[in-house]
Design goal:
This protein is an alpha+beta fold. Helices cover 54% and strands 7% of the residues.
Amino acid sequence: MSSSKSMSNSANPLIDYAGLPPFDAIKPEQVRPAVEQLIADGRARIEQVLQQPSFSWDNLVAALDNEDERLGKAFGPIGHLNGVAQSDALREAYNGCLPLLSEYGTEVGQNEKLFAAYQSLRDGDQWATLTPAQQKDLDNTLRDFRLSGVDLSTEKKQQYMENAKRLSEITSQFSDNVLDATQSWSKHVTDESELDGLPDVAKAGAADKAAEQDLDGWLLTLDFPCYYAVLCHATRSELREEMYRAHTTRASELGPDEGKFDNSALIDEILKLRQAQATLLGFENYAEKSLATKMARSTDEVTTFLRDLGRQAKPQATQELNALREFAASQGATTLNPWDMSFWSERLREQRYSISEEELRPWFPAEKVINGMFAIVEKLFAIRIQAREGVSTWHKDVRFYDVSDARPDSNGEQLASFYLDMYARTGKRGGAWMDDCLGRVRHSDGTLQKPVAYLTCNFAPPAGGKPGLLTHDEVVTLFHEFGHGLHHMLTEQEVSGISGINGVAWDAVELPSQFLENWCWTEEGLALISGHYENNSPLPKEKLDKLLAARNFQSAMMMQRQLEFSLFDMRIHAEHQSGLSVAQILQQVREEVAVVMPPEFNRFQNSFGHIFAGGYAAGYYSYKWAEVLSADAFSRFEEEGVFNAETGKSFRDKILAKGGSREPMELFIDFRGREPSVEPLLRHCGIKANSELGAQA
């Protein structure tokens, strides 16, 4: 027996810890021994379970769920740390475990005896005694066995496993390359005139970055808050172009790092291996395999939905672009280059609505926004949120909160908890996301594990002696991620496979997140989340009116951009063939839906982590698909009152509480009283619906 497997549990803090992850005790060298031991324990447990003469929910499903949870509790915090506090040693430990975990997961999914045991539970007399939630979980599990290749020949199973291992390695490498490429570029500025137009918040952040490296002046980086501020506000077109080129060529052969982090070959290999996996399972392509677990029934249904939306929005998007060109020309800009788009868009917004994102920052201090957001969800869903001190975290800025029930018959029971990590920093992956730390599950000994979530954003940190100040756009992002968090935390399911967001079809998982964004656009909501950082004075009425009036500024152009991403994703996974040119497909998609054509050097696809390193492969359309659901769900609040307690209770009970226990369309109809309509989405975007096209999710 290896030393790692004989290690006592108490010697490794990742194994069987009680409560929350012990972040202050985790060391990279503990990761692989913990994973190896828990995989060995899992294999032994499966053998033990399969020796039983007959199978029940408790001795099969619950027993193996418990073993899976031990492994998840050990590796989950490592995956999280790899995203928010990466070091070379941690990255090496994390990546070194991915092939082990992939091999083990595929091995379990291809275990014919185990599959037969689950199938016997489905076919036997016990099926009728299971709860609907248990039945849904069991059906999902049997489906996933088939999608893991349990029916394949021995030779094909081995090929499937090798492909899966390689995919786990190279998708992680893709993500690492994007992070490294982002952090490898910086621009040291000592002449303040070069930063003309840059907001004070962005300049203060750049000054702090320079000071961290013992430099004078300012240090510009490709971290999104800095990059976006330059593109929107720097008056020097040369500076905007330099940063645009650096950002849009990240992780490509054209990158400023001379191709050191080029993802081009990885993209081709990822697509080839995904197609191979799909073919082994009998699908025509990977898109079909992806849709086997989603609401959408076919690639044709998805592409028709996306193209219908595109046809509805493109005329308005073209008008918006023409208006921008005319405005820029009136200001002396003879050419509208891609790196000029955001700059002139901001100037047009300012002229048309007399308001800018930067102008609003003082009224959205992070603390006010957070507390106001809590107040909104407390009103809507009858909960209470309180900070808890003394919890082990990975950075001093991270906060921890408990969520308790405030319904009259609840006795204030604690429901869940979450970590909140707001600000961008070195070693932290860009973007914003929610992930689960612990899921709600009833263990076989009767104890109930409460859900815990990670909520991660990348906003500009406090700088220049001022608190963290958010743009309204960043406020919307925070609400989006918190909506995901509520879906995870307010579940009432006690079976791990359908608890929270588990078991929810991927194209419905964005429903609660996009739904919650709507309160950032209501007067009642804005009154709670805004207040000047110096004196808490409310957002002046004229600024509020202008903000709301500007809601749909260039909304059709933004719609087309999202449709471009979605169609590109679906097509490269549905049309894969040897020699497929990803760049050519992207160009074809742009010619179909885009109104703005990027320059030839743009390598957007090389940093498209959602589909090449995340869970959105052949699923990026989910954002638009779920946006139809979320807009229509919110339209009930528009009809009944944005803080109507009964409507909020209905959403909590019929959507958030149900997790993956029923099909998403059933849950939506139960809440809304009918199937979804696309009209509220188009209305919220200020796009006039064409009833002849009738796009509908």
